[in-house]
Every structure is written in structure tokens, then in C-alpha cells.
């Protein structure tokens, strides 16, 4: 065989090998797609905003007196430009909404609290929550104080729809954002809270408010959400806030660089058969994920994704049982056609597997917007 024929044979050989490799690669990719889908079992849902007259976000849903009550943030366009600290979320008041049936007609109970009525608060009325005890209703809300530090306040009402009368000062030892108050089966109430970036949790790592943002490096434990037991009076903490440990499946702390799983903001807790489910937003990876524990203080072990990213930057939710079914309340920016700071509350049914795990939901509506 001369040199030229030898090269031709080698070239044909190489082409055949590369075709075989490509075919095998395609097969492997097909396979891994299939196994990923099987593992995640993502359910795609179509949803409509519950409120279209106003923009609403960060829905905290509760069942009071056989109705679903929703305590959301009230988004509006204040003209403040968007930045990484969320200054464009410049909300000033809260409305309460209710529904007699899941997905039924929504009643707007109007403004129940305004920033001008809160002595200590100056701006940014962010994600609230509510709780009931002995026939009184408590609205917990974060806002910035006169030093531009996020604190958590409380306002009290005789009915779930308010109006709420604010306490003169914020809750002592409270800081950061996104309070979620959970009533345990033994009658104790706990507040879960915190949020990094604009939520300022990173400033409290040393125990007092730092002048500048400082984040742990990627290879160390991520900043953890906080918990504090509420006093019997429901308007103060009965203990110093504690950190909640978040672990991976091997019992190691979730790390700062693990943006797909580490805590960012929007904590929520529900309990089923002795298991506490702590769900939260991963912020810059835009997911709602969850972790479980047999203790309200944790440690909680990461389990998986509840809600894939929605249209808009933030993802914030609540989970509530109503008439035997579980529902996920969340928001997206579909009504405003993608405006980050103009969001709308939605709901969909949540499905649990027999082993207690939660089926992942994909409620993205990106395609219909473009
Ligand atoms: O709505 C303002 C902030 O955006 C909330 O407090 C966060 O959870 C995020 O949804």
C-alpha cells in the first residue's frame, strides 16, 4: 500500500470511529435526559393570577374560619431603579385577600396597614405573614427603620382581614426579612426569617449589624436562616434568634457556593406526620426548594425542588392545607409581562409522594410572554 492509500484508509477509519462515538454520545444523552425526567418527575402547570386589579407578591396563605386568607406584599411602580439590593421593591402598604373555595372568587379586603401608620418604619414593606391565637390575628412584616436596617414588626387585629394596629416598635432582636410564623402541634409558635443580599442577613453574621456586606467564601458553610420562638403574647421573641443548620444528604453543611440549594430568602414551614418541611427560595438560582427535619430547630436535610424558576427574578411561596388538599401559593411576573418588581400571586395544587417527598412543579410561562 502506498503512503497516499494508507492515509485514505486511516482517514476513513477515523471518520467511522467518530460517527460511532457521536451515536454513542447521543444515546447516553438520551438516556440521561430520560433518567433526569424520571427522577425529578416535574409537573408542568398552567396558572392564572388570583388578583389582576393590583400587583401582589410573596403570598403567605392561611386557613382561618374555613376560608383561605392571603397576606401578600403589594407591589407597585415607585420609579426606583432596579439594583441587586432590591431597592425597586419599594412597597408601602398591605392588602388582605380571601377565598371561600380553593381557586374561587377572591375578595380584596383593602389596605390593612400602611407604612405611614408604623412609627418605626420608613420604607420597603416586604413579604409579610400572619398568625392567629386566641381569636386575635397578628400580621408580621419586615420594613426598614430610620437607619435603613430591616427589622420585623407586628400589628394586631380582631379579624383575619384587619385592619391591623401596629405595635409602636419592631420586635426586639428582630432583623432581616421574610418572617414566616409557624404554629406547631403543641401550640408553640416559631418565627422563621432571614434573607441575604438586599435582605441584609449577611450583615448579622457577627451578631450585630455590620457596616458593609461580607459573604462567606464559596467553600464554607452558607449563611443560615434564623428561628425564634414567639412569646405567649405573640408580639415578642421569647429567646434570642438561633441559626438553622441546613445539611446535604451526607450530613454536610450546604455551602455558600452551592447556589442551587443554599438558603437565600422566603422561609416557610409546614408539618406533616411529625416531619417539619422547611421550604425556601434559592434567590439567584430562582427555585423554591425544601429540606426536612424532625425538630422545628433542625438540622434540616435538603430534599429537592418544589418549584422551578418562574417568570421574574424572585420566587416566593407558601404551602397550606385546605379541605384535605395541599396548595402551593407563589408569584410570577406574567401579568406585568416580566417586570421584576410587579408580580402576581398564583396558586396550584401540591402533590406529595407516598414517601413524603414533594413533586416538583414547573409553572414557567416564559413562552407565552415572548
Ligand atoms: O417582595 C420583596 C422581597 O422580594 C421579598 O421579601 C423577598 O422574599 C422577595 O420575594
TrEMBL record:
The record marks 178 as: Important for catalytic activity, responsible for pKa modulation of the active site Glu and correct orientation of both the proton donor and substrate. Gene3D superfamilies: Glycosyl hydrolase domain, family 43. Keywords: Carbohydrate metabolism, Glycosidase, Hydrolase, Polysaccharide degradation, Xylan degradation. It holds the Pfam family Glyco_hydro_43. One of its GO terms (biological process) is xylan catabolic process. The keyword Lipid biosynthesis does not apply. SUPFAM superfamilies: Arabinanase/levansucrase/invertase (SSF75005). The keyword Transcription does not apply. One of its GO terms (molecular function) is hydrolase activity, hydrolyzing O-glycosyl compounds. It comes from the Bacteria. Belongs to the glycosyl hydrolase 43 family. This is Alpha-L-arabinofuranosidase.
Amino acid at each position: 500500500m502506498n503512503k497516499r492509500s494508507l492515509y485514505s484508509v486511516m482517514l476513513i477509519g477515523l471518520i467511522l470511529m467518530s460517527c460511532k462515538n457521536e451515536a454513542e454520545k447521543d444515546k447516553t444523552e438520551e438516556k440521561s435526559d430520560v433518567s433526569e425526567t424520571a427522577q425529578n418527575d416535574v409537573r408542568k402547570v398552567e396558572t392564572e393570577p388570583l388578583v389582576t386589579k393590583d400587583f401582589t407578591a410573596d403570598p403567605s396563605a392561611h386557613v382561618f374560619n374555613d376560608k383561605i386568607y392571603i397576606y401578600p406584599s403589594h407591589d407597585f411602580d415607585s420609579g426606583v431603579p432596579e439594583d441587586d439590593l432590591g431597592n425597586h421593591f419599594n412597597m408601602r402598604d398591605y392588602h388582605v385577600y380571601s377565598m371561600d373555595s380553593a381557586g374561587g372568587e377572591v375578595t380584596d379586603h383593602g389596605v390593612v396597614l400602611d407604612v405611614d401608620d408604623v412609627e418605626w418604619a420608613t420604607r420597603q414593606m416586604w413579604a409579610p405573614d400572619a398568625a392567629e391565637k386566641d381569636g386575635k390575628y397578628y400580621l408580621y412584616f419586615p420594613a426598614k427603620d430610620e437607619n435603613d436596617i430591616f427589622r420585623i414588626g407586628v400589628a394586631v387585629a380582631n379579624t383575619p382581614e384587619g385592619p391591623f394596629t401596629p405595635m409602636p416598635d419592631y420586635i426586639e432582636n428582630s432583623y432581616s426579612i421574610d418572617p414566616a410564623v409557624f404554629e406547631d402541634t403543641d401550640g408553640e409558635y416559631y418565627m422563621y426569617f432571614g434573607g441575604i443580599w438586599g435582605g441584609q442577613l449577611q450583615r448579622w453574621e457577627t451578631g450585630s449589624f455590620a457596616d458593609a456586606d461580607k459573604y462567606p467564601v464559596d467553600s464554607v458553610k452558607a449563611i443560615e436562616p434564623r428561628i425564634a420562638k414567639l412569646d405567649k403574647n405573640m408580639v415578642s421573641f421569647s429567646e434570642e434568634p438561633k441559626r438553622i443548620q441546613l445539611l446535604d444528604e451526607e450530613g454536610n453543611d450546604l455551602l455558600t457556593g452551592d447556589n442551587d440549594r443554599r438558603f437565600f430568602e422566603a422561609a416557610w414551614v409546614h408539618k406533616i406526620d411529625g416531619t417539619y418541611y422547611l421550604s425556601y427560595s434559592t434567590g439567584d438560582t430562582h427555585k423554591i426548594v425544601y429540606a426536612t427535619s424532625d425538630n422545628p430547630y433542625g438540622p434540616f436535610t435538603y430534599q429537592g425542588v418544589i418549584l422551578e424558576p418562574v417568570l421574574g427574578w424572585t420566587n416566593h411561596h407558601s404551602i397550606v392545607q385546605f379541605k384535605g388538599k395541599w396548595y402551593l401559593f407563589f408569584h410570577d411576573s406574567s401579568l406585568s409581562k416580566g417586570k421584576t418588581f410587579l408580580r402576581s400571586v398564583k396558586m396550584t395544587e401540591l402533590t406529595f409522594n407516598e414517601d413524603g417527598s414533594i413533586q416538583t412543579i414547573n409553572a414557567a410561562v416564559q413562552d407565552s410572554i415572548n
